[in-house]
Amino acid sequence: MRLILKDKEYKMRVTWFCPDKVMEVFKNPLDNPSFRLRCWYNYTLLRKEGYVAKIAKSPQEAEDADVLILMSFGEEEYEITKYLKDKRKRVIHDYTENIRGIEILEKTKQLCDYIVCCSTYLAEEERKEYKDRVLVIRDPAEKFPVIHNIDYEREKLRVVWSGMGGNAPLVAAAMVPVLPR
Fold it and tell me: Quick check: 89 and 82 in contact, CB under 8 A?
C-alpha cells in the first residue's frame, strides 16, 4: 500500500519478527520450514509489489513497523506486541501449528489484530477463541520452487517430514501404522 502525504509517497513497512532465540536454533531463518514456505515467499512478494518489507531479529529493528508479523512466541514476542499495540500499530500472528494452553502464546494472540492460519482446519479451531480476527492464508508450497535433488525409486515408499524437532515424536508415532515393518 502506498499513500501520498503532503506530496511525499509513503510505503507501508511490513516486518517479520524473527528474534535472536529463533536465530540461535536455526542459525538462519531459512532453515525453518515454516519461515521458508510462508514468510520468505510472502516477504519477496510484498517487496515485488513495492512494500517496504524486512526481517527483524531484535525488537529495536522492528520498532518502525506499520505491520509486524510474528512467526514464533515467547516473552520477546509478547513485549514487542504490547509495545507496538500501544503505538497503534498492527500485529499479526502467523500461526501454523495447532498449539494450545501455552500462556504466553495465548496472551500474545489476545493482543494481535489478526491470527493468520495456514489451513481452514486450523482457522476453524482458532475461531472458537478469536472469532472474526482469524484469517486463512494457505501455505504457498505449490507455488514455491521445489527442487528434487535426490534419485528415488517409484516402487519404494519414501516418507519425508519437515518441521520443528519438538514435534518429531508425534509424527513418528502417527507414521507407525503406515510404514511397513
Answer: no
Backbone φ and ψ for 74, nearest 5 degrees, come out as 160, -175
Residues 6+ apart with CB under 8 A from 149: none
Rounded to whole angstroms, the Cα distance separating 55 from 57 reads: 7
Domains and CATH numbers, the chain: 11-145 (3.40.50.2000)
Distance CA 30, CA 40 (A): 8
The pLDDT tens digits of the residues spanning 70-79 come to 988 889 999 9
Query: Taking Cα atoms as reference points, which of 141, 153, 147, 109 lies closest to residue 128?
Result: 109
Distance CA 163, CA 45 (A): 23
pLDDT at 155 over 90: no
What's the CA gap between 65 and 72, in Å, rounded? 17
pTM: 0.69
Sign of CA dihedral 153, 154, 158, 162: positive
